[in-house]
Amino acid sequence: RSLSLLFLFVTLTNGFTHSLPRKSVPSLTKPGRLPPLPSSSVPSFLAKIRGGDDNPANALDSAKVCILSKSTAIAALTTASLQSGPWGVVALWGIASAVVVPLTLYRQAFSFSVGYGFSVFAMAVTLLSAFSPIVWNSSSYLLTVAVAFYGLRLGSFLALRNIVNKTKARELKSFDKTPRLKRIPFAIGVALFYAFMCAPVLYGLRAPPAVGSVASKIAFGGVGIAFGGALLEAIADWHKLVVKQKYGNNNADIFVGPTGGVYQLCRHPNYLGEVMFWLGLVVGGAPSFGKSITAWVCSLLGLYGIVGIMRNATSRLDKKQQEKYKGQDAYELWTNQVTAPLVPFVRGKSDS
Hints:
- This protein is an all-alpha fold.
- The chain has twelve helices and no strands.
- The chain has helices at 2-19, 42-49, 56-83, 88-106, 114-130, 139-164, 166-173, 180-206, 214-248, 269-285, 293-325, 329-337.
- The longest helix is centred in the middle third of the chain and has 35 residues, at 214-248.
- The radius of gyration is 25 Å and the shape is globular.
- The relative contact order is 0.09.
């Protein structure tokens, strides 16, 4: 899979490269040879082809200008790709990769934790910039704001948890088993998945539904689901962190909850909120997809992937808790009261 992904990445990169303007090069007097230069001018010539001259201060200034101009060109290319054309999802992929890859190099598990949240935030902020100005009360703008809030909140929370919860920090560090350079293909693949998940926002901004239309009402419904899911996950995450910090540090083998609040809806309301959020994104963006195969395929693949991940995480955590806390009164009372693992009123297989 890594080789296939790398081949796709190289192919797409070549597409970008061929679309960029190329600078002319000096004519050759003979194949492979530059025109002869006086020996005294060689140092000056070498400095100039690097973007400067033989004065170190001027050469440094020229290098700064060169880096700035290339950064500006990349930003302009990214903006143009997001606004229209077939390269929008690829541009999102590049943005996500710029966040996920360095964080994965630092800590492998960050690719699907801190890198997940902050890459989503980076894509949302870039989209807001690329499509600015946007009508503040439009469904497409509110959907993008929801993504920005979700990504920043999740990334910040996971980073904070890694600092205050030493057990979780050690657990994440234990994943550092792959040499750093070999983590890059994996990180790039994960970034592509995140780009797929954010695709509905991209297409929602490209073709916002007409105000007052049925499509607009559906889009606003998606906005509501997304914000509701983001808030539910935020509440559940914070509740769990507070309870674990207060009661769980010295009682790792004793069930301390949480069992109240949103944890009366289902046993894993944070996962429910995450599913709601990404479902809301697809509902909010779908009215703008039209006949775009790329929009439908990428968005639905992203939703299918995250729902599958959350279902597996729910089953895995349920099994882990049952093995660890089975027989404890507090745990048995809670699981008998709250029989839905993920979706409220839908009992789990083991509770049927």
